[in-house]
Structure formats: C-alpha cells, structure tokens
Design brief:
Elements: E1 4-6, E2 12-14, H1 26-34, E3 39-47, E4 49-54, E5 65-73, E6 77-85, E7 87-88, E8 100-114, E9 121-129, E10 154-160, E11 168-172, H2 175-185, H3 194-200, E12 205-209, E13 215-220, E14 227-233, E15 241-247, E16 259-266, E17 290-293, E18 299-304, H4 306-312, E19 319-328, E20 336-340, H5 344-348, E21 376-377, E22 379-380, E23 385-389, H6 391-399, E24 406-410, E25 430-433, E26 438-446
Antiparallel strand pairs: 1-2, 1-19, 3-26, 4-18, 5-6, 5-13, 6-12, 6-16, 7-15, 8-11, 8-13, 8-14, 9-10, 9-12, 14-15, 17-25, 18-24, 19-23, 19-26, 20-21, 20-24, 22-23
C-alpha cells in the first residue's frame, strides 16, 4: 500500500514507500505500523457534507432492458415510464412454403419490479405502432418521447403477486399487424436491411401503461429474450413453430436498431420538489435530512471531502494508511461510487449525457488504480451501513489526477459488453442519512 505524507499546508503528496505490506484488517495494519520506531498509529472519523445534483436527462438507448409502468412514490414523486424499440429478425430466414399463421404475440420477460409500497403491483400494458422513429445520429435520452398510433395492437393487465416479478407474459396482437408481419416473413424481403424494414414495414413498437397502474417493470431485452413471436404451423408438419422479431438490445455491430426508455417525473408533491429549482449538473445544498438517489430520474447525491482535507491541514507529517467511506443508509442495497473530477460534465458525461467509464468494479471495493475514476462497489453491512475503501481515490486526488474533492454516488452497474461503457439506468432508490456519512481514517504520525 502506498502512503502519503502531508507537509506544511502543501497538501498530501505521495512519498517513497516506508515499507510494503498487504493487509485488509485495519487493526492488523496498525500492529504492523507499531513495529516501526518513532511512529504512532491514530484513527479519526470525519463527517462529510452531502449535496444533491439533478441530471436533466439520462441516456437510455440500447441499455439491455426496457421499462414500463407508473408509480406514485411518496419520496421520489409520480413517475411514468414507457419504452420504444425497433425489431430485429434473422436476415435471409423466411417461413417455409405452405406455412399457416396461428397467432402473433408480444412476448415479455420481466426481471425487475419497482413499485411503491402498499397496493399490489399491477400494470395495464398496451402495445402501439411507432409513427416516428429514432434519430440515427444520436442517442435517445429519458426526455425523448416518440410518437405512436393511438390504435391498440394489443393490451393486457399483468399482476405481480406480493409485488414480486413474474417470469413472462404473452400479449396477443391484432389481426392487422399480424398479417403484415406474416407477409414479411413469407417474402424475399427478409434478405433486406433492417433500415429497409423500419422505413417500409414497421418503424417499431411502443410499450405503454394506462392510468391506475401501480408498478414499473423492467423488461429483459438481451438477445433471444423479449420480442414479437409469430406462431405458425406447416400442414403435415410440426404442430407449432415460431418466427422471432427480437426487440433491439446491446449489439455494437447493429447501429441501425435502437431501443430506449422515456420517463416523466412530477416531484411537485414530494420532499424532492426543491430539486426542480436547481440548475442541472450542479451539486446544491438542500434543506433535507437525507440524501436521495434514483439514477434514471436524475437524482444523484454528491459528497464533499473538504472536511477530510481540513482535518489533515492541522496535522503535520501525517501518513494516511487507509480511508474507508461509511454511509448510513435507510435501505440496505449496494451502490456504486464514482469520483467527481474538475469538469464534471465533460469528464463523466458525453455531450448527450451518457456516463463515461474508466475501469472495472473490483471485488475488494477499491478503485482500480489503473483506471482512475472507476466505480467502487459498496457492500451493505448488517446495521444498514455501507462501506468502501477509497484510499486509491484519495491517492489519485493527491496526485492531481482528480482535482476536485467530491464523489458522485450512483446505484447503477456497468455493462460488461465490449465497447459499451455506460451504466444500466434503473429505478432503484436509495436514501442516505446525512449525519451518518463519514470517513474512517487510519493514519500514522511521528512520535514526539
């Protein structure tokens, strides 16, 4: 572990290693240090200040899942989500001669559920045909609403027993869209490009919900999961066969296809109503007892590390051995922590508000030193607190690699697909108790 020496108000800087050892237990770490002459191990808990930041839109294009539904959350407000997607098929594969259409269904796999407490979750799902399409030159965000026909292609109410997700559902589609898709699957046009299909056959579909819905469901959208299924049979052949139109999913080689989530939020009657009055992407101190996090609606907490630096301004020649970030949470879900550089938007966000990614999550909960800015995985403790070793982040700050002493908290995990470095935005919520956010610091000073 590298150590840092703070000297004469110049800030903490890296010095030559006084010794090298590998140790995870701070008490063991302290025992090793005590063996050195003229050094004294000390410990401090330093409270950190928290602020809220509002992101006005999040990139929701090709995230590997879709979402649909409505909730009226007592803290985060009234939230509505609907999804849009192009369809993908197997190029060159057409139905066998003599195929007979049985039915066409929208097949949905649910793998997550976000629901306000209280009433059982149920969603009245509706399927519509898109009348507008995606901008091929840029990503769609949570603010980008696409136009769709009022005509229902299919509708079904899905209930979630005890607010748990169900595996799948089929929504039968009307005869008009069924005939169109069957005709395409029977034609030589299956050899044509996806863009030809979008321009001439079907721009895509919208998955929406009706008023009275209680719950937002996440729809699994990887290859071979949710999609439009064309059920058919061949006389004197197998009883039931399926031709698939997959929803678009993460695939860097198919640039013509997209899927996205549109989100509407009304916080006017919630404790977070004051967030709508602050400038986007600007950490602001709000008169709230807690800090709040919900990534897809742009609610992010920011932690200020100035108290840490002010504390060590008063202690000459301190050597920092380890610094643990401790968060007191009203929930027990793990979250990710990302460092906040000087240029917040340009460093972590692309021009369309996508989030840049600089490394991989380490099982130890540390930032990967080869990728400064990588997320740190916080693990939940039995008492509802969350902990992470942020020593490497602080070292990067001391080195000048990261020039601003703030951390952004995010509850989203990152795609491991090559070339797709962004968080999978979701509706998970986190509340942090402000006065329980602190740094636990183990450091060494020379004995008098």
């Amino acid at each position: 572990m590298n150590l840092w020496d703070k000297t004469l108000k110049t800030g903490l800087v890296i010095v030559s290693a006084l010794f090298t050892f590998s140790c995870e237990d701070p008490s063991e770490l302290g025992a090793n240090l005590q063996n050195l002459q003229n050094l004294e191990v000390q410990y401090a808990e330093i409270p950190l200040e928290g602020m809220q930041m509002r992101i006005d839109s999040m990139n929701t294009t090709n995230r590997g899942f879709l979402a649909v539904g409505r909730v009226n959350d007592p803290v985060f407000g009234s939230i509505m989500a609907e999804s849009y997607t192009n369809l993908a098929y197997t190029p060159g594969f057409k139905l066998p001669s003599g195929a007979v259409l049985d039915s066409v269904t929208c097949y949905l796999i649910f793998n997550r559920l976000y629901a306000a407490s209280g009433a059982p979750a149920s969603i009245q799902l509706s399927i519509h045909e898109l009348t507008s399409t995606f901008d091929r030159q840029s990503s769609a965000t949570s603010n980008d609403k696409l136009e769709y026909s009022a005509i229902l292609l299919g509708q079904k109410t899905v209930s979630f027993e005890n607010n748990n997700t169900i595996d799948t559902t089929h929504i039968r589609l009307n005869t008009q869209i069924s005939a169109r898709l069957f005709a395409f699957a029977n034609s030589e046009e299956t050899d044509s490009s996806y863009q030809h299909f979008i321009n001439t056959k079907l721009k895509g579909i919208a998955i929406t919900s009706s008023e009275g819905t209680n719950g937002i469901a996440q729809i699994a959208n990887q290859a071979g999961q949710s999609g439009i299924l064309l059920h058919y049979h061949v006389p004197n052949g197998e009883d039931s066969l399926t031709y698939r139109f997959n929803f678009n999913y993460i695939n860097q080689n198919i640039l013509d296809l997209k899927g996205s989530i549109y989100v509407e939020v009304d916080r006017s009657a919630s404790p977070l109503a004051t967030m709508d009055g602050i400038a986007p992407n600007t950490p602001t101190d709000l008169p709230l007892d807690n800090l709040y996090l919900q990534n897809i609606t742009g609610v992010l907490p920011v932690l200020n590390l100035n108290n840490f630096f002010a504390y060590f301004d008063t202690i000459p020649h301190a050597v920092i051995n380890r610094a643990d970030l401790v968060l007191g949470s009203t929930t027990t879900e793990g979250i990710l922590v990302k460092s906040d550089p000087t240029q917040l938007i340009t460093y972590y966000f692309t021009e369309d508000n996508d989030v840049n990614y600089f490394g991989s999550v380490q099982q130890t909960g540390r930032i990967d030193p080869s990728g400064i800015g990588a997320p740190m995985l916080l693990t939940s403790g039995a008492t509802g607190t969350m902990n992470a070793d942020i020593s490497n982040f602080l070292q990067a700050s001391f080195d000048g690699v990261i020039n601003q002493n703030r951390l952004i908290l995010s509850n989203t995990f990152f795609s491991e697909a090559a070339g797709f470095n962004y968080p999978r935005n979701n509706f998970d919520r986190l509340e942090l108790i402000k006065d329980k956010i602190r740094l636990k610091v183990y450091y060494t000073i020379p004995k008098n």
